[in-house]
Amino acid sequence: MASDLDFSPPEVPEPTFLENLLRYGLFLGAIFQLICVLAIIVPIPKSHEADAEPSEPRSAEVTRKPKATLPSANKRPKKETKKKR
Fold first, then answer.
1. Which residue spans traverse the membrane (predicted)?
2. How far is it, in rounded angstroms, from Cα 40 to Cα 45?
3. Which of 7, 37, 78, 80 has its Cβ near the most Cβ atoms within 10 Å?
4. For 29-77, how does the pLDDT look when each residue is reduced to its tens digit (9 = 90+)?
5. What is the dihedral of CA 22, 23, 27, 28, to 10 degrees?
6. Contacts of 23 (CB under 8 A, 6+ apart)
7. Rounded to whole angstroms, how far apart are CA atoms 69 and 49?
8. Reduced to 3 DSSP states, what percent helix, strand and coil does the chain have, rounded to the nearest 5?
């Protein structure tokens, strides 16, 4: 009765090239996502060059005049038609 039981591991076929490609592609995608999430969470200190000249862009923003909104050329006025009875 003990000789009837087979405890050998089941035969698993070798993974194909496409299965390996998918497997490692998923690993690379997961690593890329972790890097992206860490880039959002971990603050990166700005360099001294960027801190030296922040006043120039701000003054340019203050001197800018707000532009009046012009109606776009694509929009046509609605045509008023009489209701037919």
1. 24-44
2. 13
3. 37
4. 999 999 999 999 998 887 766 555 555 555 545 555 556 665 566 766 6
5. -40
6. 15
7. 36
8. 50, 0, 50
